[in-house]
Amino acid sequence: MRELAEAPFLNFFDEAVRSDPAAALEELRRHGSVAQTPIGAMVHGHREARELLVDPRMRASIMQLVEMQGITEGPLHDMVASTVLELDGADHSRIRRLVTPALTPKAVAQHRPLMRELIHGLVDRFAEAGRCEFMGDFADHYPIEVMCHLLGVPPEDHERFARWNDVMTWVLSLQLSAHLDEVNEAFEGLFGYISDLVAERRRSPRDDLLGQLIAARDGDDRLSEQELLAMIGAMLFAGYDTTRNQLGVAMVVFCDHPDQWRILADCPEVVPAAVEELMRAFGVVSTVPRVTNEEIDVDGWRIPGGSLVSVSVAGANHDPSVYVDPHRFDVSAEREPHLAFGFGAHHCLGASLARAELQEALAILARRMLDLALDGESQWRELTGIAGPTRVPLRFTPAPA
Question: What pLDDT score does 217 carry?
Fold first, then answer.
Protein backbone atom coordinates (compact mmCIF):
# COMPACT_ATOMS: atom_id res chain seq x y z
CA MET A 1 0.00 0.00 0.00
CA ARG A 2 1.40 3.39 -1.02
CA GLU A 3 1.04 6.48 1.16
CA LEU A 4 -0.71 9.60 -0.16
CA ALA A 5 2.41 11.66 0.59
CA GLU A 6 4.20 9.63 -2.10
CA ALA A 7 1.56 10.28 -4.79
CA PRO A 8 2.26 12.71 -7.65
CA PHE A 9 1.51 16.32 -6.72
CA LEU A 10 -0.94 18.55 -8.55
CA ASN A 11 -1.13 22.22 -7.59
CA PHE A 12 -4.43 23.23 -9.18
CA PHE A 13 -3.81 26.82 -8.08
CA ASP A 14 -0.80 27.00 -10.39
CA GLU A 15 -1.40 29.15 -13.48
CA ALA A 16 0.15 26.57 -15.79
CA VAL A 17 -2.26 23.90 -14.53
CA ARG A 18 -5.25 26.24 -14.74
CA SER A 19 -4.39 27.19 -18.33
CA ASP A 20 -4.11 23.56 -19.48
CA PRO A 21 -5.72 21.21 -16.95
CA ALA A 22 -6.13 18.45 -19.56
CA ALA A 23 -2.37 18.18 -20.04
CA ALA A 24 -1.82 18.05 -16.28
CA LEU A 25 -4.37 15.26 -15.90
CA GLU A 26 -2.88 13.23 -18.71
CA GLU A 27 0.52 13.43 -17.03
CA LEU A 28 -1.04 12.21 -13.76
CA ARG A 29 -2.65 9.21 -15.46
CA ARG A 30 0.79 7.68 -16.00
CA HIS A 31 1.00 7.21 -12.22
CA GLY A 32 -2.50 5.85 -11.54
CA SER A 33 -5.77 7.46 -10.47
CA VAL A 34 -4.70 9.35 -7.32
CA ALA A 35 -2.76 12.57 -6.75
CA GLN A 36 -2.06 14.80 -3.77
CA THR A 37 -3.04 18.46 -3.88
CA PRO A 38 -2.44 21.51 -1.66
CA ILE A 39 -5.65 20.71 0.25
CA GLY A 40 -5.81 16.90 0.24
CA ALA A 41 -6.16 14.14 -2.36
CA MET A 42 -7.57 14.06 -5.88
CA VAL A 43 -9.04 11.00 -7.60
CA HIS A 44 -9.47 11.22 -11.36
CA GLY A 45 -10.12 7.70 -12.71
CA HIS A 46 -13.68 6.99 -13.89
CA ARG A 47 -14.11 3.71 -12.01
CA GLU A 48 -12.54 5.08 -8.82
CA ALA A 49 -14.62 8.28 -8.98
CA ARG A 50 -17.89 6.36 -9.35
CA GLU A 51 -16.99 4.11 -6.45
CA LEU A 52 -16.12 7.03 -4.17
CA LEU A 53 -19.32 8.91 -4.99
CA VAL A 54 -21.37 6.00 -3.62
CA ASP A 55 -18.97 4.98 -0.82
CA PRO A 56 -20.64 5.35 2.63
CA ARG A 57 -17.20 6.07 4.10
CA MET A 58 -17.26 9.44 2.29
CA ARG A 59 -19.29 12.47 3.33
CA ALA A 60 -20.16 15.84 1.80
CA SER A 61 -17.48 18.45 2.36
CA ILE A 62 -18.98 21.88 1.69
CA MET A 63 -19.04 22.63 5.42
CA GLN A 64 -15.37 21.70 5.73
CA LEU A 65 -14.47 24.07 2.90
CA VAL A 66 -16.52 26.82 4.55
CA GLU A 67 -15.15 26.21 8.04
CA MET A 68 -11.51 25.98 6.94
CA GLN A 69 -11.94 29.61 5.79
CA GLY A 70 -13.00 30.73 9.27
CA ILE A 71 -16.80 30.67 8.92
CA THR A 72 -17.70 28.43 11.87
CA GLU A 73 -20.96 29.97 13.07
CA GLY A 74 -23.72 32.40 12.15
CA PRO A 75 -26.74 32.38 9.78
CA LEU A 76 -24.68 31.71 6.62
CA HIS A 77 -22.92 28.77 8.27
CA ASP A 78 -26.18 27.33 9.56
CA MET A 79 -27.97 27.65 6.21
CA VAL A 80 -25.14 25.95 4.31
CA ALA A 81 -25.23 23.14 6.89
CA SER A 82 -28.97 22.67 6.15
CA THR A 83 -28.70 22.30 2.38
CA VAL A 84 -29.17 19.00 0.61
CA LEU A 85 -25.68 19.55 -0.84
CA GLU A 86 -24.18 19.14 2.62
CA LEU A 87 -26.46 16.64 4.36
CA ASP A 88 -25.79 12.91 4.26
CA GLY A 89 -27.50 9.73 5.38
CA ALA A 90 -31.11 9.65 6.56
CA ASP A 91 -31.54 13.46 6.56
CA HIS A 92 -30.34 13.69 2.97
CA SER A 93 -32.54 10.79 1.80
CA ARG A 94 -35.58 12.25 3.55
CA ILE A 95 -35.29 15.65 1.88
CA ARG A 96 -34.66 14.13 -1.55
CA ARG A 97 -37.73 11.93 -1.13
CA LEU A 98 -39.87 14.98 -0.40
CA VAL A 99 -38.49 17.18 -3.20
CA THR A 100 -37.88 14.73 -6.07
CA PRO A 101 -41.50 14.56 -7.35
CA ALA A 102 -41.34 18.26 -8.29
CA LEU A 103 -38.16 17.76 -10.34
CA THR A 104 -38.72 14.58 -12.34
CA PRO A 105 -38.38 14.70 -16.16
CA LYS A 106 -42.18 14.53 -16.43
CA ALA A 107 -42.66 17.41 -13.97
CA VAL A 108 -40.03 19.50 -15.75
CA ALA A 109 -41.47 18.83 -19.22
CA GLN A 110 -44.52 21.00 -18.53
CA HIS A 111 -42.21 24.02 -18.28
CA ARG A 112 -40.57 23.56 -21.70
CA PRO A 113 -43.06 25.86 -23.53
CA LEU A 114 -42.16 28.62 -21.06
CA MET A 115 -38.46 28.02 -21.73
CA ARG A 116 -38.99 28.30 -25.49
CA GLU A 117 -40.94 31.52 -25.06
CA LEU A 118 -38.18 33.04 -22.92
CA ILE A 119 -35.45 31.96 -25.36
CA HIS A 120 -37.15 33.45 -28.41
CA GLY A 121 -37.90 36.66 -26.51
CA LEU A 122 -34.25 37.12 -25.56
CA VAL A 123 -32.92 36.26 -29.03
CA ASP A 124 -35.41 38.65 -30.65
CA ARG A 125 -33.66 41.52 -28.88
CA PHE A 126 -30.34 41.03 -30.70
CA ALA A 127 -30.99 38.67 -33.63
CA GLU A 128 -31.40 41.36 -36.30
CA ALA A 129 -28.02 42.88 -35.47
CA GLY A 130 -26.21 39.59 -36.10
CA ARG A 131 -24.08 40.27 -33.03
CA CYS A 132 -24.40 39.94 -29.28
CA GLU A 133 -22.42 39.66 -26.07
CA PHE A 134 -23.89 36.33 -25.18
CA MET A 135 -23.48 36.40 -21.41
CA GLY A 136 -25.01 39.85 -20.90
CA ASP A 137 -27.63 39.48 -23.63
CA PHE A 138 -28.75 35.90 -22.99
CA ALA A 139 -27.06 33.67 -20.40
CA ASP A 140 -27.33 36.15 -17.52
CA HIS A 141 -31.10 36.27 -18.01
CA TYR A 142 -32.45 32.95 -19.27
CA PRO A 143 -31.73 30.56 -16.35
CA ILE A 144 -32.69 33.01 -13.61
CA GLU A 145 -35.89 33.92 -15.46
CA VAL A 146 -36.78 30.22 -15.69
CA MET A 147 -36.15 29.70 -11.96
CA CYS A 148 -38.00 32.85 -10.96
CA HIS A 149 -40.99 31.94 -13.12
CA LEU A 150 -41.08 28.46 -11.58
CA LEU A 151 -41.00 29.95 -8.08
CA GLY A 152 -43.44 32.76 -8.85
CA VAL A 153 -40.97 35.62 -8.37
CA PRO A 154 -42.26 38.81 -10.09
CA PRO A 155 -40.32 39.83 -13.24
CA GLU A 156 -39.21 43.13 -11.70
CA ASP A 157 -37.21 41.19 -9.09
CA HIS A 158 -35.35 38.85 -11.47
CA GLU A 159 -32.29 41.07 -11.74
CA ARG A 160 -31.97 41.29 -7.97
CA PHE A 161 -31.97 37.50 -7.78
CA ALA A 162 -29.27 37.35 -10.45
CA ARG A 163 -27.04 39.79 -8.55
CA TRP A 164 -27.47 37.91 -5.25
CA ASN A 165 -26.69 34.61 -6.96
CA ASP A 166 -23.58 36.04 -8.62
CA VAL A 167 -22.15 36.89 -5.21
CA MET A 168 -23.25 33.64 -3.56
CA THR A 169 -21.03 31.63 -5.95
CA TRP A 170 -18.11 32.44 -3.63
CA VAL A 171 -19.59 30.04 -1.07
CA LEU A 172 -18.34 27.10 -3.15
CA SER A 173 -14.88 28.59 -3.67
CA LEU A 174 -11.68 28.85 -1.66
CA GLN A 175 -11.96 32.65 -1.78
CA LEU A 176 -15.04 32.87 0.45
CA SER A 177 -13.26 34.60 3.33
CA ALA A 178 -11.98 37.35 1.01
CA HIS A 179 -15.54 38.06 -0.17
CA LEU A 180 -17.35 37.41 3.10
CA ASP A 181 -18.86 40.89 3.55
CA GLU A 182 -20.50 40.91 0.11
CA VAL A 183 -21.57 37.26 0.52
CA ASN A 184 -23.25 38.04 3.86
CA GLU A 185 -25.03 41.03 2.31
CA ALA A 186 -26.27 38.91 -0.61
CA PHE A 187 -27.26 36.12 1.79
CA GLU A 188 -29.37 38.49 3.88
CA GLY A 189 -31.05 39.91 0.79
CA LEU A 190 -31.72 36.56 -0.87
CA PHE A 191 -32.97 34.65 2.16
CA GLY A 192 -34.93 37.61 3.49
CA TYR A 193 -36.74 37.76 0.16
CA ILE A 194 -37.29 33.98 0.07
CA SER A 195 -38.73 34.05 3.62
CA ASP A 196 -41.22 36.74 2.62
CA LEU A 197 -42.07 34.85 -0.58
CA VAL A 198 -42.77 31.63 1.34
CA ALA A 199 -44.95 33.48 3.85
CA GLU A 200 -46.93 35.08 1.03
CA ARG A 201 -47.35 31.73 -0.75
CA ARG A 202 -48.63 30.11 2.44
CA ARG A 203 -51.31 32.82 2.58
CA SER A 204 -52.14 32.49 -1.13
CA PRO A 205 -51.18 29.01 -2.40
CA ARG A 206 -50.38 28.46 -6.08
CA ASP A 207 -49.71 25.36 -8.14
CA ASP A 208 -46.11 26.24 -9.00
CA LEU A 209 -42.74 24.82 -7.96
CA LEU A 210 -42.66 26.81 -4.72
CA GLY A 211 -46.20 25.73 -3.91
CA GLN A 212 -45.23 22.10 -4.55
CA LEU A 213 -42.22 22.38 -2.23
CA ILE A 214 -44.32 23.96 0.52
CA ALA A 215 -46.94 21.23 0.15
CA ALA A 216 -44.47 18.34 -0.27
CA ARG A 217 -45.36 15.53 2.10
CA ASP A 218 -44.45 11.90 2.75
CA GLY A 219 -47.04 10.66 5.19
CA ASP A 220 -46.83 13.05 8.15
CA ASP A 221 -43.37 14.27 7.10
CA ARG A 222 -42.73 17.58 5.38
CA LEU A 223 -39.90 20.10 5.00
CA SER A 224 -39.18 22.29 8.02
CA GLU A 225 -39.00 26.03 7.47
CA GLN A 226 -35.18 25.96 7.56
CA GLU A 227 -35.07 23.02 5.15
CA LEU A 228 -37.51 24.72 2.79
CA LEU A 229 -35.51 27.96 2.71
CA ALA A 230 -32.24 26.07 2.25
CA MET A 231 -33.72 24.01 -0.60
CA ILE A 232 -35.05 27.06 -2.44
CA GLY A 233 -31.74 28.87 -1.97
CA ALA A 234 -29.79 25.86 -3.24
CA MET A 235 -32.07 25.49 -6.26
CA LEU A 236 -31.76 29.16 -7.15
CA PHE A 237 -28.01 29.09 -6.71
CA ALA A 238 -27.36 25.83 -8.57
CA GLY A 239 -30.10 26.31 -11.15
CA TYR A 240 -28.84 29.74 -12.14
CA ASP A 241 -25.06 29.75 -11.98
CA THR A 242 -24.28 26.31 -13.37
CA THR A 243 -26.70 26.62 -16.29
CA ARG A 244 -25.61 30.16 -17.12
CA ASN A 245 -21.96 29.17 -17.22
CA GLN A 246 -22.65 25.95 -19.12
CA LEU A 247 -24.44 27.97 -21.79
CA GLY A 248 -21.50 30.37 -22.05
CA VAL A 249 -19.04 27.49 -22.31
CA ALA A 250 -21.25 25.88 -24.95
CA MET A 251 -21.09 28.91 -27.23
CA VAL A 252 -17.30 29.12 -26.98
CA VAL A 253 -17.01 25.39 -27.68
CA PHE A 254 -19.32 25.51 -30.70
CA CYS A 255 -17.43 28.49 -32.10
CA ASP A 256 -14.38 26.20 -32.04
CA HIS A 257 -16.43 23.39 -33.65
CA PRO A 258 -18.62 25.02 -36.34
CA ASP A 259 -19.34 21.66 -37.97
CA GLN A 260 -20.98 20.50 -34.72
CA TRP A 261 -23.08 23.68 -34.56
CA ARG A 262 -24.37 23.01 -38.08
CA ILE A 263 -25.38 19.51 -37.01
CA LEU A 264 -27.56 20.97 -34.26
CA ALA A 265 -29.25 23.35 -36.72
CA ASP A 266 -29.86 20.64 -39.31
CA CYS A 267 -30.68 17.75 -36.96
CA PRO A 268 -32.50 18.99 -33.83
CA GLU A 269 -33.05 15.39 -32.75
CA VAL A 270 -29.31 15.30 -31.93
CA VAL A 271 -29.65 18.08 -29.33
CA PRO A 272 -30.18 15.84 -26.25
CA ALA A 273 -27.05 13.83 -27.08
CA ALA A 274 -25.19 17.08 -27.77
CA VAL A 275 -26.02 18.32 -24.27
CA GLU A 276 -24.63 15.11 -22.78
CA GLU A 277 -21.43 15.39 -24.84
CA LEU A 278 -21.05 19.04 -23.84
CA MET A 279 -21.45 18.17 -20.15
CA ARG A 280 -18.96 15.32 -20.47
CA ALA A 281 -16.28 17.17 -22.39
CA PHE A 282 -16.71 20.70 -21.00
CA GLY A 283 -18.70 20.50 -17.78
CA VAL A 284 -18.44 23.63 -15.62
CA VAL A 285 -18.08 21.63 -12.38
CA SER A 286 -14.70 19.93 -12.56
CA THR A 287 -14.50 18.39 -9.08
CA VAL A 288 -16.86 17.11 -6.40
CA PRO A 289 -15.32 17.54 -2.92
CA ARG A 290 -15.75 14.83 -0.31
CA VAL A 291 -14.24 13.98 3.12
CA THR A 292 -13.18 10.50 4.26
CA ASN A 293 -14.83 9.30 7.46
CA GLU A 294 -12.08 6.71 7.86
CA GLU A 295 -8.94 5.52 6.13
CA ILE A 296 -9.65 4.23 2.62
CA ASP A 297 -7.69 2.52 -0.14
CA VAL A 298 -8.05 3.95 -3.65
CA ASP A 299 -6.14 2.30 -6.48
CA GLY A 300 -3.47 1.10 -4.06
CA TRP A 301 -3.04 4.49 -2.34
CA ARG A 302 -3.82 4.95 1.36
CA ILE A 303 -5.94 8.06 2.01
CA PRO A 304 -6.20 8.86 5.76
CA GLY A 305 -9.48 9.44 7.57
CA GLY A 306 -10.54 13.09 7.70
CA SER A 307 -8.90 13.83 4.33
CA LEU A 308 -10.46 16.22 1.83
CA VAL A 309 -10.78 14.35 -1.47
CA SER A 310 -11.43 16.18 -4.73
CA VAL A 311 -13.27 13.68 -6.94
CA SER A 312 -12.35 14.90 -10.41
CA VAL A 313 -15.41 14.39 -12.58
CA ALA A 314 -13.54 16.21 -15.36
CA GLY A 315 -10.78 13.61 -15.16
CA ALA A 316 -13.29 10.77 -14.97
CA ASN A 317 -15.19 12.13 -17.98
CA HIS A 318 -11.97 12.04 -20.05
CA ASP A 319 -10.73 8.66 -18.87
CA PRO A 320 -9.45 6.85 -22.01
CA SER A 321 -10.26 3.47 -20.47
CA VAL A 322 -13.97 4.43 -20.71
CA TYR A 323 -14.21 6.96 -23.55
CA VAL A 324 -12.62 6.37 -26.95
CA ASP A 325 -10.71 9.49 -28.03
CA PRO A 326 -11.97 11.31 -24.92
CA HIS A 327 -10.75 14.78 -25.91
CA ARG A 328 -12.68 14.73 -29.18
CA PHE A 329 -15.92 16.72 -29.04
CA ASP A 330 -18.53 14.92 -31.14
CA VAL A 331 -22.26 15.50 -30.62
CA SER A 332 -23.06 12.36 -32.60
CA ALA A 333 -20.78 10.02 -30.63
CA GLU A 334 -22.24 7.22 -28.54
CA ARG A 335 -20.66 7.53 -25.09
CA GLU A 336 -20.93 5.95 -21.68
CA PRO A 337 -22.94 8.12 -19.24
CA HIS A 338 -20.88 10.98 -17.80
CA LEU A 339 -20.44 12.05 -14.18
CA ALA A 340 -20.99 15.79 -14.67
CA PHE A 341 -24.14 15.67 -12.51
CA GLY A 342 -22.41 13.54 -9.90
CA PHE A 343 -23.40 9.98 -9.04
CA GLY A 344 -25.08 8.11 -6.23
CA ALA A 345 -26.99 9.72 -3.39
CA HIS A 346 -25.77 13.24 -4.23
CA HIS A 347 -26.61 13.05 -7.95
CA CYS A 348 -27.82 16.54 -8.89
CA LEU A 349 -31.48 16.96 -7.90
CA GLY A 350 -32.01 19.53 -10.67
CA ALA A 351 -30.41 17.48 -13.45
CA SER A 352 -33.68 17.10 -15.38
CA LEU A 353 -34.34 20.84 -15.20
CA ALA A 354 -30.80 21.69 -16.31
CA ARG A 355 -30.97 19.23 -19.21
CA ALA A 356 -34.31 20.67 -20.35
CA GLU A 357 -33.04 24.27 -20.19
CA LEU A 358 -29.89 23.43 -22.14
CA GLN A 359 -31.73 21.33 -24.72
CA GLU A 360 -34.33 23.99 -25.44
CA ALA A 361 -31.73 26.76 -25.60
CA LEU A 362 -29.28 24.98 -27.92
CA ALA A 363 -32.05 23.79 -30.26
CA ILE A 364 -33.36 27.33 -30.78
CA LEU A 365 -30.01 29.13 -30.76
CA ALA A 366 -28.57 26.77 -33.40
CA ARG A 367 -31.54 27.42 -35.72
CA ARG A 368 -31.57 31.20 -35.22
CA MET A 369 -27.83 31.96 -35.04
CA LEU A 370 -26.19 30.49 -38.14
CA ASP A 371 -22.47 30.71 -39.00
CA LEU A 372 -21.64 31.22 -35.32
CA ALA A 373 -18.21 32.73 -34.55
CA LEU A 374 -16.44 34.64 -31.81
CA ASP A 375 -16.42 38.40 -32.38
CA GLY A 376 -13.43 39.09 -30.13
CA GLU A 377 -11.85 37.37 -27.15
CA SER A 378 -13.94 35.69 -24.49
CA GLN A 379 -13.20 36.55 -20.85
CA TRP A 380 -13.37 34.08 -17.96
CA ARG A 381 -14.30 34.30 -14.30
CA GLU A 382 -11.91 33.92 -11.40
CA LEU A 383 -11.22 30.45 -10.03
CA THR A 384 -14.28 29.27 -8.07
CA GLY A 385 -16.09 25.97 -7.74
CA ILE A 386 -17.83 26.59 -11.06
CA ALA A 387 -15.98 27.55 -14.25
CA GLY A 388 -17.32 29.73 -17.03
CA PRO A 389 -16.95 32.89 -19.10
CA THR A 390 -17.96 36.40 -18.09
CA ARG A 391 -17.96 37.73 -21.66
CA VAL A 392 -18.58 35.94 -24.97
CA PRO A 393 -18.84 38.31 -27.97
CA LEU A 394 -20.50 36.57 -30.93
CA ARG A 395 -21.31 37.25 -34.54
CA PHE A 396 -23.69 35.18 -36.64
CA THR A 397 -26.06 35.13 -39.59
CA PRO A 398 -29.59 35.72 -38.25
CA ALA A 399 -32.34 33.33 -39.25
CA PRO A 400 -36.07 33.88 -38.65
CA ALA A 401 -37.72 32.55 -35.53
Answer: 62
